[in-house]
Fold:
Amino acid sequence: MSLWRHLSYGVRNLLHREQRNGETTEELEHFLKMAIEERRECGQSQEDAIRSARIELGSLSAAKDTVQSYGWENHVRSIAGDLRFAVRQLWRHGMFTASVVITLAIGIGANTAIFSVVQSVLLTPLPYRNPDRLAQLDTHFSDAGHLTPCMTGPDAIDAREQARSFEAMSLYFGGNEGVQLRDHGVYTTVTWVDANFARVFNLVPIAGRLFDDAEAHRTALVSEHFARENFGSAQAAVGQVLHVETEAIEIAGVLQEEFDFPDHTEVWEASSLQPESHSRTAFNYRVVGLLRPGVSFRSAQTELSQLAQRLQSAYPADNRNKEFAVVPLKDAITGYARSTVLLLWAGVTIILLIACVNVSNLQLVRSLERQRELAIRRALGSSRLRVMRPVLLEGLLMALAGGLAGFLLALPTVRLLVDMAPRELPRAAEFTSVCRS
Amino acid sequence: MEEASTDVIQGTLDMLILKTVSLEDMHGFGIARRVEQISRGVFKINPGSLMTALQRLERAGWVNSEWCQTENSRRAKYYSLTPSGKRQLAKEAADWTRRVAAVARLLGAEV
Structure:
């Protein structure tokens, strides 16, 4: 209630300042008139009454000042005055202002742009369902320390059939292939995936259906983008036939545009759940798995290590020193880019620091220039705060302008980074997310 | 001419104004005069601090103000006590009485 009155009275005073001042004056004059009248009634002459009333009440304009300086709205008024002053000062010293703002804009813009990359590559969860439960299985050799992000077919099957930590596990392989359509060819990423792949990523086709294990090497899923580019729409692509490495494949379903795992795949061809390679030394497959809800990576790793031990004793020749590693899929995807991106981030941070040092140097020069002005204001009786406020406001205004300019600079820079990003850099297409969110 | 007037004790101005307004609705000059008369000239309030205090009380919701005609048909701003002003006055008065009694006891203490 009282806060509300404070606010509404203050706002009313700000808006109707003239009227408000008039009322104060009128009230004070009424005060004076009454004092004079009272004296007249006691028998004083008009002049004496006026004189003694004035002496008793003191200066009315001083009283008016006291009354009018009450309330929070007066701070608003004086800050607004300082703000106007700061803007005029900045305008007058255009070169100084421009160099500070540009310096800040470059520092802040570079940081914003690189941070968008950091955010989308390293911080944002993978754009798949259950991103925290997705894992990649790697093989490494405990004697040589050598790590490969692949598994052999039989090892992977053992893992799939014996590891209780996983809800589903899928084997895949692939790469860039020529895809032959009826009237033209397309060179794109084709991945052979088994029927479990859709279970791991919880895929729901936007058109058509998923394939089952019996359809290996006869059907495929394609991305929405691929469908639209080559057949006009997702619906139109279903049932069409394409050729990959002389195999004729029917499109069973279309997956939504956001899904492009692994490596911007556009065609997922069905492969059998039983791998063709039976060698425990041929690392032909990559393996992704979906952990059961509530199972940690650590316990999954423990289970896989036990499995690796069993396989080592069962196949001492092929599986000697062979271990399996359960890696969160996000780390597996962004792993190698991580240090590069962080290094870039450190680089732009230093740029920002340098920018700040430059700005403070410029400020220093400027403050030497205005020492006289400040000294005079102090000597005239301004409080330290009153003298410092316009200077601080100037700094604040320049910081805001620099920040805004930096942000505007970051928008095209992020787009440029996306265009320049090597195709291998994971998740480049998601870069704009900082600007979007 | 009259005995020396004293500045109003710090922090009691609000209470004095609330009390005075509680007697009847009054304009600024009336309040100042009434405080002076009842205190037999001990307290004098200058218009600047009076009107600042009135603004404060009004914003706190303890008094309301309204422009009215006076008996001699002049326009003046009249102040009246609100219910929450009445509660505030009771609270401040009780507090004041307690303090005064305590000070009196302290000053009256002997050996």
The interface with chain A takes residues 27-30, 32-33, 46-49, 51-52, 55-56, 58-61, 74-77, 84 of chain B (CB under 8 Å).
